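Dear support,

I submitted the protein below through the web form. The confirmation email said the job was done, but the results page showed an empty box. After a refresh the structure appeared. I'm attaching both so you can tell me whether what I see now is the final result or a partial one.
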Amino acid sequence: MLRRLTRLLAVLAAALVLAASGWLAWWLLGDGLRATAGIGPADGVVRVAGCHTGDDGDGRTTAFACEGTFAAATGAERPIVLADAQDAYPRGTAVPVRLAWGKAYETSAREAAAVILLGCAVACPGVLTAVWLLVSARSGRPADFDALVVLGAALPLALTGVAAAMK
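What the results page shows now:
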């Protein structure tokens, strides 16, 4: 009876940890995913005033950044940066954008993939903890934690590195 109750509590704790990990990843990165993946209608347009490129220090172009004026659907206007623009737009171009983290973003599969990888890195420790709880519940005794500690440290770092390389 006690063993069955312990297993049930471990499964419930695993479900709670998974839900909390998913919520945290969405809370931190949901706006960025919505903006980069193009979910929902555009928040407005950016009238480009000028664009410039960045480089990685070795002379390779990394991305375009454009400054301009954001015009919301409500009619309010303000200066804004179009982060990681897909092209060096000519002055006066109207680009539909979504807002996140104080910047404007175009729809971009590459940027959305980077945000998803960061979300996985955020959720990874909780997922691994839930796996440990479920393995322990299944076997009836605490599972070997050493491999999960290594994965818990290495996997988020690797995912973050890949996401940074995509930017």
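Response: this is the final, complete result; the empty box was a page-load delay. The chain is about 55% helix and 25% strand.
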